[in-house]
Amino acid sequence: MNDHELDQLIRQTHPDPEFPAAFQREVWDRIALAEKDSWPARWRNWIQAVSRHIARPAPALALFTLMTVIGSCLGVLSASSESETLSFNAYVASIHPAEAARAGARE
Prior knowledge:
Structural class: mainly alpha
Number of strands: 0
Oligomer: single chain
Number of helices: 6
Helix content: over 70%
Radius of gyration: 35 Å
Number of domains: 2
Shape: elongated
Strand content: under 5%
């Protein structure tokens, strides 16, 4: 049996199914509905809503101020845990190479 005869035999045993006229549209409508209710779509919509809200001047300024205050507080808290002398020596060593050699010899 050659390929042509095999193709004919397959076509005879497996006829093309008859679909309703709106079948393809209905399938795509169901896919779109499923995508709309999915977690990634909900997450994307939430992120867009928050971004739109923050992009306005008043919330953007409030968020900037809040982050600046939090950053400053964390900076003060982390700096207060270090010895002031060690911080001073590290600063001087970072801007003055000769002092860096002396500070290394003292420690």
